[in-house]
Amino acid sequence: MNLNINLKKNVFLMLAVALGTLSSCDDDAGSGNGLTASSVDASFTITPVAGAVNTYLMTAQTKGVIGSKWDTGDGALIGKNTQVISLPDAGAYTITHTAIGAGGATGKASLPLVVATSDPVKGNLVKGGKFETTADQAQWTVCNLSANGSAFWSYANKSATIHSPGGWAQEGIYQAIDVVKDKEYTIDMLVSCPSGSDETWFEVYAGKSVPKSGVEYKDNKVMGLSTWDGCAKAAFSGWLSSVGCVKNDATGTVKNVVKFDTTGKIYLLIRCGGNTFTKDGITVSKIEMRGK
C-alpha cells in the first residue's frame, strides 16, 4: 500500500517538473532565444548585366536573411535576395534593400546608382513627366480652352492638377514628341482624385496637328476617364491604363498603345473639364510614353 502511494507521489513530482520546464520555455520565447533576430545585415552589391541595356543585378548577403524588398524610388516591392531590375530612364537613383530576418526583424541599406543614358527603345520620351522642378513644368505648354481662365492647371508635390469650377470649363497641357513611323508606343500616367465627378472627362491625345488655344483638340484620342463611360464617378487612384475607360480612337478598345504612319513630331495633350467637376481636382504624375 505504501509502495503505491510513493509511486504516485513520484509520478506527480515528475509531471510537475516537466510542466515547470515547459512553462519556463514559454516565458523565454522572443527574449534572446534566437526566435527574433536582434539585427539584420541588409548590405548588397550592384552589378550591370552583360549584354542588357540599363539592367542591373542586385545581390544581397544572405546570412540571417529570409526575405528581401527592393525600392528603386517608387516604393518597396517584395523580391528575391538576388534581384534583376531594369531602369530604362537616365538619372540618379537610390536603390534601397530591406532585409527581413527571423521573427520579422528588418534591416535597411542603400546604394547610389547613376544611369548615364536612357534606353533608346524603352526610355521615356516625355520630358518633365514627374513635374519635380520648374524646369520639368516648363516642358509643358498650356492650351487655353477656358475663355475666362476659370479652369487651370497647378503644379505641386511632383504632380499636376487640373481645377475647374464646372459649367463645362476645361483646360489642356501638351508637349511635342518625336516618333518613328510604324513603331508602337505605350502611353501611361498615374491619375488620382479623392472624390467623384459628374459629366466630366479627362482625355489623352497623341496627334499630329498643332494644338491651338481656344480650339478643342480632337486629334487621335488614346485613353482617358469619362463619367459617361463609367469611370471617375467616384474616387480613383492608379495607372490610367488600369482605372481609365475611354476607348482608343485607332483600335475602338480601351488600349494605351499608339503608332504613327510617318516619322516626325506628334503632340501629347491632356484635355480635362466637365459640368459637375470634382472639388478636389484631378491629379496626374509620372507621365510616360515608351517604345515597345
Helices and strands in order:
Blueprint: H1 2-28, E1 44-48, E2 55-60, E3 67-71, E4 77-79, E5 82-86, E6 91-100, E7 106-115, H2 134-137, E8 141-143, E9 152-156, E10 159-163, E11 169-179, E12 185-193, E13 198-207, E14 221-226, E15 236-239, H3 240-243, E16 257-258, E17 264-276, E18 282-291
Antiparallel strand pairs: 1-2, 2-5, 3-4, 3-6, 6-7, 8-11, 9-10, 10-18, 11-17, 12-15, 12-16, 12-18, 13-14, 13-17
Give an overview of the whole structure.
This protein folds into 2 domains: 44-115, Sandwich (Immunoglobulin-like); 134-291, Jelly Rolls (Sandwich), CATH 2.60.120.260. It contains 3 helices and 18 strands. The chain has helices at residues 2-28, 134-137, 240-243; strands at residues 44-48, 55-60, 67-71, 77-79, 82-86, 91-100, 106-115, 141-143, 152-156, 159-163, 169-179, 185-193, 198-207, 221-226, 236-239, 257-258, 264-276, 282-291. The strands form 4 sheets. Strands 9, 10, 12, 15, 16 and 18 form a 6-stranded antiparallel sheet that branches. A hairpin with a 2-residue loop joins strand 9 (152-156) and strand 10 (159-163). The longest helix has 27 residues, at 2-28. The termini are far apart. The model is unreliable at 1-34 (pLDDT under 50).
